Automatic annotation (TrEMBL), chain A:
GO biological process per UniProt: protein sumoylation
Organism, as annotated: Dichanthelium oligosanthes
Gene3D superfamilies referenced in this protein's UniProt entry, alphabetically: NAD(P)-binding Rossmann-like Domain
Keywords linked to the UniProt accession: Acetylation, Nucleus, Ubl conjugation pathway
InterPro entries xref list: ThiF/MoeB/HesA (IPR045886), ThiF_NAD_FAD-bd (IPR000594), Ubiquitin-activating_enz (IPR035985), UBQ/SUMO-activ_enz_E1-like (IPR000011)
Pathway where it operates: Protein modification; protein sumoylation
Alphabetical list of SUPFAM superfamilies matching this protein: Activating enzymes of the ubiquitin-like proteins
Family: Belongs to the ubiquitin-activating E1 family.
Cellular component GO terms held in the UniProt record: cytoplasm; SUMO activating enzyme complex
Descriptive protein name: Ubiquitin-like 1-activating enzyme E1A
Pfam families with a match to the protein in the record: ThiF (PF00899)
Chief place of localization: nucleus
Record domain THIF-type NAD/FAD binding fold: where: 18-316
Automatic annotation (TrEMBL), chain B:
Domain Ubiquitin-activating enzyme SCCH: 264-365
Protein name, per record: SUMO-activating enzyme subunit
Family, per entry: Belongs to the ubiquitin-activating E1 family.
Residue sites binding Zn(2+) per the record: 154, 157, 428, 431
Gene Ontology CC annotation, any one: SUMO activating enzyme complex
Amino acid sequence: MDGSGAEGELTAQETALYDRQIRVWGVDAQKRLSKSHVLVCGMNGTTIEFCKNIVLAGVGSLSLMDDHMVTEDDLNANFLIPPDESIYGGRSRAEVCCESLKDFNPMVRVSVENGDPSLIDGEFLDKFDIIVISGASLKIKLFINENCRKRSKRIAFYTIDCKDSCGEIFVDLQKHSYVQKKPGGETEQQELTYPSLQEAISVPWKNLPRKTAKLYFAMRVLENYELSEGRSPGKTTLSDIPAVLARRKDMCDKMSLNESQIPTALMEQLLAAGKKEHPPVCAILGGILGQEVIKSISCKGDPIKNFFYFDAADGKGVIEDIPPPPPPSAN
Amino acid sequence: MASAASSEEAVKAAKVLMVGAGGIGCELLKTLALSGFSDIHIIDLDTIEVSNLNRQFLFRQSHVGQSKAKVARDAVLKFRPNINITPYHANVKDSQFNVDFFKQFSVVLNGLDNLDARRHVNRLCLAAEVPLVESGTTGFLGQVTVHVKGKTECYECQPKPVPKSYPVCTITSTPSKFVHCIVWAKDLLFAKLFGDKNQDNDLNVHSKDDSSSKTDVFERNVDEGLEQYAQRVYDHVFGYNIETALSNEETWKNRRKPNPIYIRDALPEDAVQQNGRSWDHKNEEQEPSAMVFLGLRNPQEIWSLADNSRVFLEALKLFFEKREKEIGNLIFDKDDQLAVEFVAAAANIRASSFGIPVHSLFEAKGVAGNIVHAVATTNAIIAGLIVIEAIKVLKGDYQNYRMTYCLEHPARKMLLMPVEPFEPNKSCYVCSETPLVLEVNTKTSKLREVIEKVIKNKLGMNLPLVMVGATLVFEDGDGLEPDEAANYALNLEKVLAELPAPVVNGTKLTVEDFQQELKCSINIKHRDEFDEEKEPDGMVLVGWSGPVDQQVTSNGDKRSVPSSSSADDGDGTAEDISAKPGMKRKLNEILEAKENFDALKKSDVGSSSAQVVDDDDDDLVMFDEDPKQGKKKRLQ
C-alpha cells in the first residue's frame, strides 16, 4: 500500500457488492483493501480458505505460488479442485486453484506466480503487501521472513499450518501502527513492534509463562526435528516418535522446561496427522487469518501478536505473545 | 471420550438437516461436504441477492434471483459430486416440515437469520428429540451452541428479547433518536403515501380543531401538478404538522422544541421553479433514482437540508412518474433504491427539525432495513465450529459439548472461547411445563391482541389454538369449517371478559401449537392500568422474560463442578485443569466476553435498533441473551 488510502470513491458496483462488510469495517478500509496485493505460497486446505475470504473481501490482487502438480491427496480439504483428473491432471495446484478463485469475485485479480519460494528475492517481494506461507519448511519460512524484513517497504508476513485437528498461525508485522477502538467507542493510535520468526522461535522457554500453549512448544520440537533430519513438513510419521521424543527431552533440558508441558500424546497426534488437514479446522484458521490480514491492511483493530493456536480437542482459539530473546548480557 | 464410534463412521452414517443457506449456510455446507458428510438436507426460503455475494461464496452474479438452497447444492456437488444434497426452496415453518420430518435426522444445524424461525426449529427439535446446533454471527462476533433435550438448555431456556417497538407518541411527536425518524419515515409516511390506503396510520398529529381535514391531505388533487403536490406534502408533514404539535405546550415543557421546516426555507432559490425538468433518456432502463437524477453520487456523504429536501421531492415525484401502478401496494424494502432514498431524506429532514444528527443514505439504509453487519471470515469460523460440535453430537460425546464464542477482542488470550453448556432451565416454558402469568386488562383487551402480541409475538407460536377450560375459543390454520372460522373470527374481536367462556382474573388459558408440539398454560391476572411508555403492548407476560431465580441457583452450583473428563491430551496437572472451561475462572472470562458484546451493541446503530418487523435476509445476531440476565444468572 502506498498510503494513498482514501482517494477515489468506490464504484456503485463495489458499494452494492460490499455493502454488508463496509458496515463492519468502513469505506476507508474497503478502499485500502482494494489497493493491496497478497502473495500466497503453498495451496492447501488452510490457504484456500484464506484465499476465498480475502477474494470475497475484495483485495486488489492475489498471487498464488505452488508448482506442485495436483494429486489425489490434494483433494481432501480443497473445494477449489474438482475431483476430476481430466481437469486437474498435469496442472499445478496454483493453476487449478487460481481458475476457481477467479470466479469468486470479478473485481479481484487472481494470478499464478511460477517459481520456487526458496528462490524468492527481495525485489520480487516488493510487489506485495502481504505474504502468506503454508506447508513450507522452517528454512524457507525463515528465508522469506528475513527477506521481507530487509525491504524498505513494510511487508506483512504470515505462516499458517493445519495438522489434523490442530493449527498454528504466525504473524510478523514488523512495526505496525493502527487505530484501536476502546470499549467506550473512542479510538486511539497504537504501535506494536514484532519479533522476527527467527527471534520468536529462539526465546528461551524458561522465560515464557507456564500457561503458554503446549502447541507452541510441540510445534517447535517437530520443526527442529524436521530441520535437522532434512524432512519436508508432514513427512515425519509415528514411526519417528522415539527420535522426536528424544529431541523433546534435549530441548526441554536445554531450556529448563518440564517435559510434561509437551505431552507425549500431543506429539503423537501431530506426527499421526502428517499432512492431513481437518476441514473445519482449516475453515477456522483460514477465517482467523483472513481477519488478521484485513486488520493489517486497514490498520484497524488489534492484530494478533504473534502466534495463534487452535485445537479442536479443547475448542480454544488462543493468542500467544512470544517475545524475542533477551539481548545478550554485556559482559 | 468413552462413547466410541470413530468420527469418520459417525459422519458417514449421519443424515443432517441444515436450516438456512445464507452466510453461515454456504460455509457450513462446504465444510460439511469436505468433512465427509454425505446425506445433507437443506431448507432455505430465500433467493440470492447482490448484497449476498460478498460472503455467500457459492453464489455468483448470474444466480441472482434463484433459490439459495438449490444453487448451493449445485455448487457443492462440483467438488463433491458423489454425495447427496437435498434442497428445499421453502419456509421451515411450512407444515411439510413437521415433527416426523425432523425425526429422520441425526442432527439439525441452524444457520438462520431470525428469532422466529430459530424458536420454531428449537421446538420441533425438542418434539422430535433431535439434537440442535445453533449459531449466529454479527460482524466479527459469533457463537455456536448445542441443544440436546434433557442434557443441555434449549434455545429458549434463556429469554430472547423480541424486536424492539417504540411507543407511538415517540414516533409521531417526540423523536429523540435518528431511529425514531426512520421509523416515522418508513412505517408512517412511506406507508401513508405509497402503501395500503386502508391501513390505520398515526401520521397526522391530532389537533383539537381537526374537523377541516375531511379530505385526505395526502391524496393528490385531480388537477394538481406533481411538483405542487410534492411541495404540499413536504410543507404539511415538516411544517404544518410540527406547528400543530408545538401548539400543545404541555409536550414541550421538558423537551427541546422542534423547528417547523417549509420548502421555501429549505430551498429558498429553486423551490418554486422546477418545471422544465426532463429525463435523460439514456438512463431510461435504469432503476429510477432521485440521487442519480440530482447528481448525488456518494451514498456515504451527509447531505445538507437542501439536498435532503431535493431528494425527498424528487423521489416522491419519481414514484408517481415511474412507478404509479405500484402506489397503494408498496411496502418498504431495503433493496428498493428509490424507497430507501425517500425514507432517508424524509428521516433526515425530520431529524433536522428535531435537532437530531442527520445520517448518510448508507447509514440510514442500515437502520431502516435492520441490516446486519456481515463478513465471510466470521461465518467461515462459525461454520467450522458447528461441524466440530456436530461431530461430537453424532458420537454422543456429550461431556465435551461446548458453546463457543467468537470474539473481536481476546478475553484471557482467547479469540475463540469455549464454555460448558448450561443445563435445562427448569422454569423454561418451552422445554419444561411451567405456567406463565399474563397481566392484562380483561375488560378492554381483545382476544386478537392477546393472540398477536403474546401468543404469536412473544411465545412464537405459528398456528395457535386457545382454550379456556374445556372451551375452544380460537384455532388457526387450514381445514376449519366455515362456521367455525366465522365463530373464531367473531371471538377475535371480543374483549376477554366477553368471550363465550369469559376470561377474567384467575382464569387459566391453555395455548397450543400442534405443529410445534408445544403446549403451555397462561394464568390471567387482571390489571386496570398500563404505562404507555414502558408497557406499550398494554399487557405484560410474566415468567417469560422475568428472572428465574431458584432453579438457576442449583444449576449454577452444578455447573461449577469441574469436569475431569474434558478432552485434554493426557497429563492433567493442576495448571491444565484450572485453565479449562468449567472452572471458576470461567466466570471472569464470560464476564469479559459479555462486555465485548455490550460494547458492540452500543456502538452499533443498525442491529440494536431493531424494529417491529425483522425483514433482513441475513445471518443474524444471536447475542440476544440479555447480558445482564446472563451475568446475574451465572453469578449466583
